[in-house]
Amino acid sequence: MSPLPPPDAVSAAADLPGRLAARQGRLTRTLTTPKIVFIVVAAAAPLAAMVFTVPLSFALGAGPGVPALLLLAGLTLLCFSCGYAAISRDIGQGGGFYGYIARGLGRPVAVGAGMVAVVAYNAVAVSLLGAFGYFAQGVAAAHGLHLAWEVWAALGLAAVGVLGYRHVELSARALAACMVGEIAILLALDVAVLVEHGPAALPAVSFAPHQVLVPGAGVSVMFAFASFIGFESAALYGEEARDPGRSVPRATLVAVLLVASFYALTSWVAVGAVGPDRVRTTAAAHLGDLFFVLGDRYLGGAASTAMQLLLCTSLFASWLALHNAANRYLLVLGRDRLLPGRLDAVHPRHHAPHRASAVQTALAAVVATVFAVAGLDPYLNMSTTLLGLGTLGVIALQALASIAVLGYYRRRPGHWWRTGLAPALGAAGLLAATVLVVCNFRVLTGTSNPLVTSLPWLLVVAGAGGSGYALWLRAARPGRYASLAGLAALRALPGGRGAAALPAQRRRGPSRRTTN
Predict the structure, then answer these.
(1) pLDDT value for 67
(2) Quick one: which of 25, 96, 131, 451 has the fewest CB in 10 Å?
(3) In this structure, are residues 429 and 79 in contact, taking their beta carbons and an 8 Å threshold?
(4) How far apart are CA 279 and CA 205, in angstroms?
(5) What is the distance between the terminal CA atoms of the chain, rounded to a whole angstrom?
(6) With 0-12 CB in 10 A as exposed, 13-18 as middle and 19+ as buried, what is 322?
(7) How many Cβ atoms sit within 10 Å of the Cβ of residue 38?
(8) Tens of pLDDT along 32-51?
(9) The whole model's pTM is what?
(10) 3 state DSSP class of 514
């Protein structure tokens, strides 16, 4: 329990709406629910997840039991999404984890979470740069165009940088086209297998307890949660949604239902196509080529080639979506001067966080250059390492956000399922997933290099440093501390949405105290 903010804090908060509107007014509210769904599903990269993580999960994890564990992860994230959607509906602001955790667990925890989010989302975005360069090089070389991976990475980075600099509507259109293509080719494979094998294409053994509860189940659960990374980013677009109180929660729920159903069905069909007794050994022999082999067998060589091209567009789409997510964390933390204030800028014509996009593009270029100069592999070294770091950070943030929902509704009226049991179950499952990622970090990154396996400490340092800085602000700069986490942004939302999230003393008089 902290005392009421001093007069300078109150005056600073009272003055923020005007200054905030002056800076944010150019962020246009044009995103509808379908557009947000396209953005966040593309971030999860369904085709890339099927090609990379599912075969590894078959080989190193539960084998034919993988579809059940993907469904379990989806149900856990659905519980998380119920609470996430509820607090999104009540608060209706942008800021993602940073804004929501502030309401449920206080500003110090939120600032630490914001710093972890910056590290995690930038790590995943840069990892996808490496994966895109690597696979674009391979696919192009197979068709006679021989260019170094650095060239493909530079071309991809230029395209991502331009789209990130422009209005998010342009990115939404590009992501929609990519997402439709990758889902269509996998659904075509599913249908072809079902037509040829009938009911045998969906073997019941995949959901048998003796096939699911095996020693490698923990590894499969870890890969399952890693495959969903990105869907939770819908909350970052609250300031650009036409109706954030509806679009953000709906998009989050639709995204997790769509991705979970798709992953479970396609992996289940793959088990049926290969055979439950052979799927582990076949996946170990083919790994990243497994779905291309299936595509060639059931759809023909042309479809397999199309799948390879769509893999590159899937990686590009996920890269662009996560680039945009990272930009918005840079924007909101710059707004609160937790990062350089110049990041809090919206382009006067493109209505986009252009400075944040430029900084993120430059950071990605620097990291890629370091790996290239060192002669390291863009996929085996750069992509897997940074993806492991980002995955751990995002899953930990999801767990913390579920706990924040419980904290937010502890003294507020709420639905027993949406704001109570569902986020509690989500928090339990996500905390378990966080532990699994930490324990299996070598498996996730594919290396036992001590430099790589110590990377999780970077997240600890970022979180602790952010929380420590917030505590210092509370003691030394109470005016700035009072304005953290979008308090004024809530006050400025259309129709007064979010007023319920204001600290009690701002609504009911000075006799109340705030826990933030």
Answers:
(1) 94
(2) 451
(3) yes
(4) 12
(5) 8
(6) buried
(7) 26
(8) 888 888 888 888 888 888 88
(9) 0.84
(10) strand
